[in-house]
Write a structure and sequence with these properties.
This protein has two domains: about 190 residues, Rossmann fold; about 55 residues. Helix content is about 45%, strand content about 15%. The chain is globular and about 90 Å long. It is an alpha/beta fold. Helix 4 links the parallel strand 4 and strand 5.
Length: about 280
Amino acid sequence: MTDPEIKALLSRIADSLDRLAPPPQRPSDIRAADGFVWNAEFSRLDPVAKINRVAVDLLKGVEQQTQTLYENTKRFADGLPANNALLWGARGMGKSSLVKAVHAQINEEVPGALALIEIHREDLEGLPRLLNVIRAGDRRAVVFCDDLSFDHSDNTYKSLKAVLDGGIEGRPENVVFYATSNRRHLMARDMIENERSTAINPSEAVEEKVSLSDRFGLWLGFHSCDQDTFFAMIEGYCKAFDIPISREQLEAEAREWAITRGSRSGRVAWQYIQDLAGRHGKAVA
């Protein structure tokens, strides 16, 4: 091949590679929305057009937890010191709903005050990159991880500990970390007991496992609700969505619904309300 032919061939190859290459990533705009999901693959914030949430006044049986989390979040939004928060306890009792509801309430009072950024449990290794993105921005953000827990083969908790409090840089001033979990210490009891039985110094091994939860200055416990609270949840939803039904029929149906599912919780109450609203042709969005 002649030199001009080689140059033409190389030029076509270069053009083809340019077309195959992904477009350059634009920097994340933390003011583009009030809610985001962290995209670990591309290290960017994906805006959420509408956050899936319920109004804070519809969360029944967790009034004390609501007030405590609101006050912590409000201080953070005002530029004052605030703690990382761990919401732990019974499933379906509104832990993640409370985080989203409090965020919405703060932003209703001061529009755009806080961004809510969800990071998935499996993407926690990318948390330092996320914090660097937020650190470079001019907006305060609640980083939220739902259903946080660890098993025997997972050592991600070690890096998470350093990021939350123990690293050289530490947590950025414009970031607070909220997590929900069914476990108070984020790890299964048998995982902790296994460390106790195999370690040279059992107490040190246990300290290593449970010290992650110590990075959360605020612990909020959620417990299974009683029947009266369960009915209060359902009545609150019925009133909010204007569902026409007598109290006697509502309680009878709700009791049967809870029995068939073997539990009473905010999640079960919401599932019943969706069924009831659908039967009455009412929207709940």
